[in-house]
Amino acid sequence: MEKRLFGSTGQQFPILSFGAQRIVDEHNCTEEEAIQIVNRAIDEGITYFDTAPSYSNGQSEERLGKALALQNRRHEVWIATKTHDRTRDGSLKLLEASLKRLQTDHVDEWRLHNIMTMEELDQCFAKGGALEALLEAKEQGLIKHISISGHTNPRVQLEAIERYAFDSALVALSAADHLVYSFAHEFLPKAIEKGVAIIGMKVMALGKLAPWYAKALQYTFSLPISTAIVGMESMAQLEQNLAIAKSFKPMTDLEQLAFLKEIMHLANPDVLRWKSTDWVSGEWYVRE
């Protein structure tokens, strides 16, 4: 697989990375299957694994930790996890629990999860806010890199990277996202200019792009990103994604335009629900 630089970190990753949200009971993936899928991914060169404490109440982190511990493979991978709490104290509690589930003494990347609004960004940057936790954790060696994620409004993430030199940003970059509140148009140029590593997500638009599976992956891989995480709940999905990534050739401008015309009808609130201000309701975490 093609490898790309991860922003200004000096690290490199293959274009295909592993979204661990789906290796859980909720997605009909057993623990045994999860362990097999994770190890197969590593065998095939995937080294970047994304998870979060809010994914199935920690089961995603727990299974990733078990898969790595059973064959002593922690040193082979880069783990990114998140905090959905907007406070320092709440975030540090989440990190402590994440490290236990992941069976590690540090994570390579810790990110502010799903910052949707300027108000949430302000909460994180305020005194006693979540950013204080990220900075303290880095100072203590519990994390190595600081990140942010966003699905909804690219202007929020643009403001974030003006306020702080985040090492990376995980943002929605499906072909359908190209058409509404486009991170590809609005966020990528400035992030690249600042040396921020960009991780693409929502590649399949929650399954809505499944009829165009290979093209959907090709579109996101063709963007100027460092890597793209894809959720995988079965060995068949992993093998399909690996095959597409290994044979990847960038889309030409004309191919991209033709594809966007083909899927333009998907640019509506029923499909792009994460662009809606009520997206967090029951989707990622319960607000206290």
CATH architect. name: Alpha-Beta Barrel
CATH class: Alpha Beta
Strand order of the largest sheet: 3-4-5-6-7-8-9-10
Task: Supply Rg.
Answer: 18 Å
Shape: globular
Count the beta strands.
10
CATH topology: TIM Barrel
Structural class: alpha/beta
The CATH homologous superfamily is termed NADP-dependent oxidoreductase domain
Largest sheet: 8 strands, parallel, barrel
Count of discrete alpha- or pi-helical segments spanning 4 or more residues:
11
Instruction: Pick out the low-confidence regions.
Output: 281-288
Q: Overall pLDDT, averaged?
A: 93
| Overall tally of structural domains | 1
The level of helicity is 25-40%
Provide the succession of SSEs.
EEEHEHEHEHHEHEHHEHEHH
Domain NADP-dependent oxidoreductase: 16-217
Protein name: Oxidoreductase
Organism: Paenibacillus ferrarius
Pfam family, one: Aldo_ket_red
Features:
TIM Barrel, 11 helices, Oxidoreductase, alpha/beta, eight-stranded parallel beta barrel, NAD(P)_OxRdtase_dom_sf, NADP_OxRdtase_dom, 10 strands
Characterization of this structure:
The protein is an alpha/beta fold. The protein has one domain: Alpha-Beta Barrel (TIM Barrel), CATH 3.20.20. Helices cover 39% and strands 17% of the residues. It has helices spanning 31-43, 59-70, 88-102, 118-125, 130-139, 154-163, 183-186, 188-193, 213-222, 235-246, 253-263; strands spanning 3-5, 12-14, 16-19, 48-50, 78-83, 107-112, 143-150, 168-172, 197-201, 227-231. An 8-stranded parallel barrel has the order 3-4-5-6-7-8-9-10, surrounded by 4 helices. A two-stranded antiparallel ribbon has the order 1-2. Helix 1 (31-43) links the parallel strand 3 and strand 4. The longest helix has 15 residues, at 88-102. It starts with a strand and ends in a 25-residue tail after the last helix.
